[in-house]
Amino acid sequence: MELAFIVNPISGKRLKGPQRVDLVRAFADSEKLDAVVWPTERPGHAPELAKQALAAGAKRIVAVGGDGTINEIGRVIVGTNCEFGLVPMGSGNGLARHIGIPLGFNKALRLAASGSAIKVDTGEADGRPFFNVMGIGFDAEVGRRFNETEGRGLLNYMKEGWKAFRGYRSLNCSIETSSGTKALNAYIVAVANSSQYGSNAFIAPDASMTDGKLNLVAISEPNFLSFFILIWRMFSKKLYYSPRVTPICSDSFTLSMKSGGFFHVDGEIFRCGEKLTVKACPKSLRIVAMAC
Ligand SMILES: Nc1ncnc2c1ncn2[C@@H]1O[C@H](COP(=O)(O)OP(=O)(O)OP(=O)(O)O)[C@@H](O)[C@H]1O
After folding, report:
1. Where are the domains of the chain?
2. Which of 83, 90, 146, 283 has the most C-beta neighbours closer than 10 Å?
3. Ligand 1 proximal residues by C-beta, below 6 Å
């Protein structure tokens, strides 16, 4: 078996359910690919299927889903020789957008099956691989709320963001890198491997996935007006112009907080203690990409 398509039938909004799986099967048949097409049946199923595909000798595994599905499969592939293809079917598709994958289903399928792969960096937070963005503070709080709602998409994400904004207070943390330690009172601390959360909301507009580094972006507590200005700056790639934003580029970060809390990796929420180590893993993933 050359190729394995792992299809999350419930992610995003387009072509949901069995028809998504059928379309991938029809594509694999029409192109006469030496491929299997496996749908995921529950959360946590994609990593099991990815392990199965690796054990069966797949040379390329294609994730058909959103950033959560990409993370579930990517964390099995990272550090191996197996190539990774993406067919973006999520609500934000941050990683796919960063690496120039077409959002159209057929174009993306074609590229994922036959495009060439390049080696890119990945990140690790508390030992958990991430490919797009990880974060603590407000960032993790919005992710936690978003995961608990049925609704998907940018509008629902912003709705949850607004609800969280009304009750959230910043956290004191210190950020240690090889060039020193910085104490901050931050509302959001995000560490980005790619440039955007998804839906063209750029948290680290200058991020590169081949520089061996990650981009930490700390944002101090906004008021009502600056909350909306920050959002506008994100969508216009101008976040770093804000006086509330501190960007730091490094190959590793140790974040120390007064108490433990939550962090997210690519939108998946986990608990952390008072210290959280985030590091870059240079050139650790072979991914089909048009840009990086
Ligand atoms: N058959 C299934 N039923 C329910 N949940 C599933 C199934 N297969 C996968 N999942 C879970 O669906 C979750 C959401 O998937 P994913 O993140 O890819 O989509 P999304 O949230 O719509 O997109 P994005 O991450 O871009 O916002 C994942 O955490 C995954 O574990």
Report:
1. 3-115, 128-281
2. 90
3. 8-12, 40-45, 65-69, 72, 90-93, 152, 198, 267
pLDDT at 223 over 80: yes
- The atom of ligand 1 lying closest to the CA of 69 is 18
User: How far, in Å, from the CA of 284 to the mean position of ligand 1?
Assistant: 24
CATH number of 3-115: 3.40.50.10330
- Residue 229, helix vs strand vs coil: helix
User: In angstroms, what is the span from residue 282 Cα to ligand 1's centroid?
Assistant: 27
Cβ pair 174, 184 in contact under 8 A = yes
| Predicted confidence (pLDDT) at residue 291 exceeds the cutoff of 90 | no
Number of C-alpha atoms within 13 angstroms, CB side, residue 178? 7
Write the ipTM.
0.95
Q: What is the band of 75 on the pLDDT scale with cuts at 50, 70, 90?
A: very high
Between 26-30, 144-148, 266-270, the lowest mean confidence (pLDDT) is in 144-148
Instruction: Read off the pTM.
Output: 0.92
Phi-psi map region of 165: left, alpha, beta (phi>0 left; psi -120 to 50 alpha) = alpha
Q: Fold for domain 128-281?
A: Tumour Suppressor Smad4 (2.60.200)
- Tell me the CA–centroid distance for residue 68 and ligand 1, in Å: 6
With contact defined as beta carbons under 8 Å apart, do 102 and 108 qualify?
yes
